[in-house]
């Protein structure tokens, strides 16, 4: 434990604040819970319950930072304590602890130590002032653990911000992504707090905190726009179920619940609700893509994800709709004619915004009304009216039965046939899901309550412009957070090569584009190695800037037999105290064979496969293409030879992904000839 000169001062403050928290909690717990029907009482009870929850949470780790800010309108600086949830003094209404998302807390993250004047935007206007102290405080299990000053007015040395960040980055992680509220960096803060009404696109190098920032942004948006945004109407799309499990802890840590978290595939299947439809085995698709790629399959996949194909589907849909509603005059009884022009006019103009299904229903209702008016207008005799009504309804039934609405899949099949594209049956590929959803949106429609308030897309470089468009149709405004890294686009046949493709979907004035080039995950040595690989790209890519956290050199070794080497590596890593370790092979079959060999000696090792739903940490073996998004204390990359990793762009990306999964330690093995992507690389020992 670091004992700083400020330690005792903070210990005293902590004791005071804890007493306050305890007594507020006691007071609130003493108020009986209200279960009655009075609305005002219910609102008050909800607010009390929220306070109880905040206080309970704050008991363990009430805050992590202190900022002494002197507003120019005040006579002296006020210490602001910043925590995960805001706590207020019941009597005075003053903040005891400021929520990290509150406007004033922004100063804690944005202040670099060199600005003389700072300001924040409060609801009552701009507040100007200066900062006298910025302090990081670590509290664990209710006890003060560490106090680090990153800025003190009048003192020259103010490197504590970096020191504290390095201390946090050097910690070993468990097997889940964690919140970073105490160390959010200025560039990250700017993205997190960007207004909600634009599509925010983030290109970030591996380990720059994209996923983490997107999750914090959701928590921020829910706080800032609490009147208009609902967690239930927000959604996160992630690449697979295992990744969702890996990130599942961050939002609850930030006090956010009820946000939908899913993959694009599962979500579309839920929307389509076609029990006969299924997805082709993705484990096999991935395997063949990374182990036996086929160029013509790839071309078809890219085409089906393009805006060009989307426009063709749209055009075909318009035609199919016209054919569906192709009508003749409706003769209710002799002399009572509703012309086909009148019907078409209703469909084209009056029902313009309705889906095809709704149009069918609205047409039926409108025609019934027309019959009723006709009957009442021209016939006075009740009996005669009744007979005509009956006859007209019989004819209407017959007339409407000619309008046949086919299923989404049938329409898609017809479009593919029309376009001379290979047919699909009941088993589809992921790339078929965007057109299927497009058809569903037009035919069945999107209910108001199904629209999203905000959408997050992680690993968005693997999304196609077509996918993005169907999601845009489903979203109110343009409120998106889209994050990815083009250098990690290992599924680029389905995805994009440049972010421009997405800017086109939203329009240039509706997008805000950010780049994050600092990598927080890995040591300096690992980033240096990753950058060496990126330099082998035929096109120029942005290199990652390391945070200066030095670790062990990256070793690359030539070996005869992998098995014993892996076991020795696991032992060595265990001795170093690393918790999460990954052995990454190039193919699933190779990993399967190695797993069979290793798990007799290392029963704790788990074999990660494409269909896995959870990630439980420890020692894992997995093919490198499944490692995207994850991170491990130590990584052993196998088969870095010239056949497994050639100079093809997709191999550069794959090796880059593998290398950047390591936090603290990276080692690579090969037999035969070393991949050209690593030749000339100098660090560590090559043997
Ligand atoms: N400001 C920060 N303070 C502390 N840790 C951070 C910060 N930013 C990012 N990290 C850490 O860096 C690691 C990488 O973060 P994250 O997985 O969100 O990055 P990413 O850009 O999505 O990575 P990738 O594209 O490689 O999957 C995580 O361990 C995260 O906790």
TrEMBL record:
InterPro entries in the cross-refs: DNA_helicase_UvrD/REP, P-loop_NTPase, UvrD-like_ATP-bd, UvrD-like_helicase_C
On whether Ribosomal protein is a keyword of this UniProt record, the answer is no
Cite a single Pfam family from the UniProt record.
Answer: UvrD_C_2
Q: Where does ATP bind?
A: 204-211
Q: Name one GO biological process term.
A: recombinational repair
Matching entries from Gene3D superfamilies are given as: P-loop containing nucleotide triphosphate hydrolases
Coiled coil (UniProt feature): none
Q: Which GO terms describe its molecular function?
A: 3'-5' DNA helicase activity; ATP binding; DNA binding; hydrolase activity
Q: Which SUPFAM superfamilies match?
A: P-loop containing nucleoside triphosphate hydrolases
Cellular component terms, GO, for this chain's entry?
cytosol
Q: Taking every annotated instance into account, which residue ranges of this chain make up the domain UvrD-like helicase ATP-binding?
A: 183-523
Is Hydrolase found in the keyword set? yes
Q: What is this protein called?
A: AAA family ATPase
Output the lineage of the source organism: Bacteria, Bacillati, Bacillota, Bacilli, Bacillales
């Amino acid at each position: 434990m670091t004992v700083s000169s400020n330690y005792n001062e903070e210990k005293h403050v902590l004791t005071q604040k804890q007493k306050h928290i305890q007594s507020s909690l006691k007071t609130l717990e003493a108020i009986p819970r209200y279960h009655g029907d009075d609305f005002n009482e219910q609102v008050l009870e909800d607010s009390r319950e929220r306070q109880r929850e905040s206080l309970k949470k704050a008991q363990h780790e009430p805050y992590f930072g202190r900022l002494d800010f002197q507003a120019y309108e005040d006579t002296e600086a006020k210490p602001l304590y910043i925590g995960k949830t805001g706590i207020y003094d019941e009597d005075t209404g003053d903040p005891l602890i400021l929520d990290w998302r509150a406007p004033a807390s922004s100063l804690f993250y944005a202040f670099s130590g060199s600005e003389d004047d700072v300001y924040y935007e409060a609801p009552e206007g701009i507040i100007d002032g200066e900062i006298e102290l910025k302090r990081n405080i670590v509290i664990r299990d209710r006890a003060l653990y560490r106090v680090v000053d990153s800025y003190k007015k009048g003192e020259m040395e103010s490197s504590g911000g970096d020191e504290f960040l390095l201390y946090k980055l050097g910690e070993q992680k468990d097997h889940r992504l964690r919140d970073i509220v105490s160390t959010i960096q200025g560039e990250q803060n700017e993205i997190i707090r960007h207004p909600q009404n634009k599509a925010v696109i983030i290109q970030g190098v591996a380990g720059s905190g994209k996923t983490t920032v997107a999750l914090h942004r959701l928590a921020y948006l829910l706080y800032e726009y609490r009147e208009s945004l609902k967690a239930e109407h927000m959604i996160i799309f992630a690449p697979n179920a295992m990744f969702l499990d890996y990130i599942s802890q961050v939002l609850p840590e930030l006090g956010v619940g009820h946000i939908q978290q899913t993959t694009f595939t599962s979500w579309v299947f839920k929307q389509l609700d076609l029990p006969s439809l299924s997805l082709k085995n993705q484990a096999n698709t991935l395997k063949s893509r990374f182990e036996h790629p086929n160029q013509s399959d790839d071309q078809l996949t890219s085409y089906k994800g393009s805006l060009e194909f989307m426009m063709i589907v749209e055009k075909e849909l318009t035609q199919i709709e016209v054919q569906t509603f192709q009508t003749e005059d409706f003769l209710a009884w002799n002399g009572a004619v509703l012309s086909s022009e009148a019907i078409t006019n209703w469909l084209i103009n009056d029902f313009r915004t309705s889906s095809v299904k709704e149009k069918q229903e609205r047409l039926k209702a409108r025609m019934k009304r027309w019959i009723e008016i006709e009957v009442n207008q021209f016939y006075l005799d009740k009996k005669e009216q009744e007979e005509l009504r009956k006859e007209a309804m019989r004819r209407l039934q017959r007339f409407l039965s000619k309008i046949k609405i086919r299923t989404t899949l049938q329409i898609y099949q017809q479009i593919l046939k029309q376009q001379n594209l290979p047919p699909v049956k009941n088993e589809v590929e992921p790339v078929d899901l965007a057109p299927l959803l497009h058809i569903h949106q037009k035919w069945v429609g999107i209910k108001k309550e199904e629209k999203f308030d905000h959408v997050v897309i992680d690993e968005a470089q693997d999304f196609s412009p077509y996918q993005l468009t169907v999601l845009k149709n489903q979203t109110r405004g343009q409120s998106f957070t889209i994050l990815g890294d083009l250098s990690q686009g290992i599924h680029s046949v389905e995805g994009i090569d440049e972010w421009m493709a997405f800017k086109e979907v939203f329009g240039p004035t509706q997008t805000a584009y950010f780049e994050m080039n600092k990598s927080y995950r890995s040591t300096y040595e690992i980033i240096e190695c990753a950058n060496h690989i990126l330099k082998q790209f035929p096109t120029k890519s942005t290199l990652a800037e390391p945070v200066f956290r030095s670790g062990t050199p990256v070793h690359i070794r030539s070996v005869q037999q992998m098995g014993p080497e892996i076991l020795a590596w696991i032992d060595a890593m265990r001795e170093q105290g690393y918790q999460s370790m990954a052995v990454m092979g190039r193919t699933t079959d190779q990993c399967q064979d190695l797993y069979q060999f290793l798990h007799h000696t290392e029963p704790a090792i788990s074999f990660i496969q494409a269909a896995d739903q959870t990630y439980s940490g420890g020692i894992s073996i997995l093919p490198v293409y499944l490692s995207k998004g994850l991170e491990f204390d130590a990584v052993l990359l196998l088969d870095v030879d010239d056949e497994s990793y050639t100079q093809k762009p997709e191999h550069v990306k794959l090796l880059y992904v593998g290398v950047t999964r390591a936090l603290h330690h990276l080692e690579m093995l090969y037999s035969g000839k070393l991949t050209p992507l690593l030749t000339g690389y100098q660090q560590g020992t090559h043997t």
